[in-house]
Structure formats: structure tokens, C-alpha cells
Amino acid sequence: MLRGPFILWGFNPFRSEQKLVQCLQDNVHFPFEVQQPKVFVVEYYRDTLWKGALLLLLSAVGCGLYFQTEKGDQDYAGFFAFGIMTGLWLVLCSASKRRLVINHRRGFYRLYIRERLWHQGPLHQIYLRLTAQQDAYGKSFYSLVVSGYRLEELVLARLSTDYEQMQALGRRLAHKLYLNYFDCQEASGRHVVRHWPPPLLHDDKAWPQDADETDRHEAEGLPV
User: Is residue 211 part of a domain?
Assistant: First the structure.
């Protein structure tokens, strides 16, 4: 299993929800780590880094082979040039390490890029969401993402057909991270809203009443 800033690169196109289950067994806050009580941190590179590098490599190799076989014919040279430029652009845009901090003690989240603060926002603007898409035959596929205002989506699992398990995993992780959870349907009884815009944002009594004893101890026994 990949670790460190590459933790989100492990993609299993078959039964991706099972891979997420395994990750949550190892770390109930996956992909975040507990920096200190009620403060969660994840460092990552966007997966477009390896995708761009792969596209750049394939385009460069294909370009070289093409000109060798075609003896200088440039009919399709623009195609390879486009692939090289696109791959290079993806690599440059994704080469900077990101750091996302969710701080419940102070009531905000922060995104750092190249160790510089890119965005800071209140906790009601970051959430877990189950997204859905359909293929040409009407079959639904579900993805679980961490998203928010001015945040790049962190895909935790994708292309799963098991709606019930995906939404259960999303609600479970949102509970552990104490974030809002939204179902794939706009109007749904499965939304779980824990953070609201001010003045309810910093309500210390809003911590979940059904939390287990460990969560309640951490929530109530911390020094301010």
C-alpha cells in the first residue's frame, strides 16, 4: 500500500470500496493523520502528476518512433506535440505537494501548496460527498470524495456500484473526521450536517451525542 504523500494514488478499478475498507481498518481517519487531538492533516500529490508523467513519456516515445518509421512525415506531428505539452503542463501543475489541515480546535481548514497558505475557510465549507455518474446503459457508479470551497477533490474511492456500502463508509469517515456528509442526491434524508454558517459554526456543544467513549473523552477532556 502506498504511503506518505502518495497515499491517494492507490487505485483499484475493481471493488474500490473494499480497498477503502482496508485503509479504514488501518487508519480510521484515512487519508488523514491525527496531528494532535481534533486536528487532522494529510499531505499529498495530485494523481495528475503520474498521469501527466505517463502521458509525457508515451507521447515522447511515440513521437520518436513515428518519425523513425515515417521518415520525417509531419502529418501527425501536432498530435504528439499536443500530448507532450499536455503531459508537461499536468506535471508542472501537480508537482507541488499539498497539505490539508482540518482544525476543529480553531474551527477552520487550511490548504497549503508549496508550504504557502492557499486557502483558509470555516468547517462548514469542507465536506465528504458521494457522487454518482451513469454509463450509456443507465448503470450508476459512485465515488466518495473530500471536497469543499477552493479545494481540489480528494478521491477516496471511485467507480463502485455498491451504493449502500459507499454511503455507509462515507458517513462513518465523516463521523470520525467530524465533517459534513452529503449524499449523491440533492434532496436526501442521508445528509449529515454537523457544521453550519455562523453563528452555529463554533458551537462546542455540537459534537455528536452518539460518539463512542474515546471520541467523547477527546472532545471533552482537552485543554483549551
Answer: yes
